[in-house]
Amino acid sequence: MGSESADKPATLADVARLAGVSQQTVSRVVNNTGPVATRTRARVSEAVGQLNYVPNRLAQGLARRRSHSIGFATNDIALHAPSQLTSGIERAAREVGYSLIVSIVPDYGLGSVTQTLRVLRERQVDGLLINASLSRADAAEIRRRFADVPCVFLDVPPGTPVHAALLDQRRGAVLAAEHLTRLGHTRIACIHAPQDAVAEHSRLQGWQDVLSNQGLSLVGQQEGDWSPASGYRATVALLASGVAFSGLLVGNDQMAVGALRALWERGLRVPGDVSVIGYDDTAESALLIPPLSTVRQDFPTLGRRAFHHLKALLDGQEPQTMPLTQPELVVRASTAAPDERPDWRTALKVLETHLTNR
């Protein structure tokens, strides 16, 4: 009998009794639904841990007609942007007692996104966050098809008439192209997003606009699929075309990794022969050889903002339209003026001095 009692899951009343508070107070702490004094909250949290209390979210959801879960439909989380967005959303959701269910959108287009969202709706999620590149028309159609559930979009063109939390992708592209032209590059090629990535083509438009304003144009273009391997193949194709270029704009840092490899294999120096600039500022970009110039996008912050926008909709509020999250140019050693050659002797001397003075 004692063993059966010991194996019985702890209840809200057990936690309240151990912490010396009311069950209402315990509920406010575990559901993060009201003000509780700091010391009381700590006492309740300690009791929760000691008893290994696990709230029955399913029962709570049935009682309130809420599952306290949200669905996140996104591109492959092996890529930098989706993984960072997932992290930011999950943390924000957990802080207010929501769980996150992630489902991968296997391909571009309305049909693929619709199928993924239907799977999430079958899980009875309260709301949907959608990180899949959609045109204005397709986003509006998704909103019509899922009119019964609040939705926030993270990858649609600015101005799309839906609830959205977006990055200013065109602005980031402008920063990158202006950086190369300020250095003096006039022969610039690019590796751009997949053709079906509708929203991301604002990056290509930003590059083209900067060059056009200076009487220039891209001397070569190749398409990638976001992966390092596609960046490698695209760079090989650019070099094989015979078109000379001294600057290379790349749609994300992971494709830029492949570009650096292709240039190195063919004996081209970066930035001595070709300056390369990526997009996203992955954790690895500062550790590449040479460290990669890039455009930083704050995906965790965007994820948190998107969740809180959705949470406001779930609470019956009408949140204000969010301004675009702004990017930042990060200049490292992979970009330089076309005629500038790295002085390796000076660089080695600086490193030697640094190591000697440690």
Give structural notes.
The chain is α/β, with parallel strands linked by helices. It has 3 domains: 2-55, 434 Repressor (Amino-terminal Domain) (Orthogonal Bundle); 63-167 and 300-325, Response regulator (Rossmann fold, 3-Layer(aba) Sandwich), CATH 3.40.50; 169-297 and 329-341, Response regulator (Rossmann fold). The chain contains 14 helices and 10 strands. The strands form 3 sheets. A 4-stranded parallel β-sheet has the order 2-1-3-4, with helices on both faces. A 4-stranded parallel β-sheet has the order 6-5-7-8, with helices on both faces. Strands 9-10 form a two-stranded antiparallel sheet. The radius of gyration is 25 Å and the shape is elongated. It starts with a helix and ends with a helix.
